[in-house]
């Protein structure tokens, strides 16, 4: 009986460590995605959609973990990890807003550049014509 309890506790501890390790890996990947967005200044909305789908997969994994019976200590670990996820989601949301604002500015700058180039070409054409 004592051996069974010890084995059960050891398995529980292994499950907690495995769950914690798995969640840390997911949070690390999420942080890496945030960093990539920030440094690469993504210009395609498809890339943002990919990031959001990866985040959705992370949530599905969390739901699967919760579905298994967890001990009180496992629940505490999971609560801590969920709090970390919430904090990362807030940061992700902030970075996404910054990215969207940046993308809007880039589009406007490209439009302005094209307009100025067209105007310049028109004026140069008129100037050359007037010189002839």
From TrEMBL:
Keywords: Bacterial flagellum biogenesis, Chaperone, Coiled coil, Cytoplasm. Residues 75-102 form a coiled coil. It is found in: Cytoplasm, Cytosol. It comes from the Bacteria. It holds the Pfam family FliT. InterPro entries: FliT. Belongs to the bacillales FliT family. May act as an export chaperone for the filament capping protein FliD. This is Flagellar protein FliT.
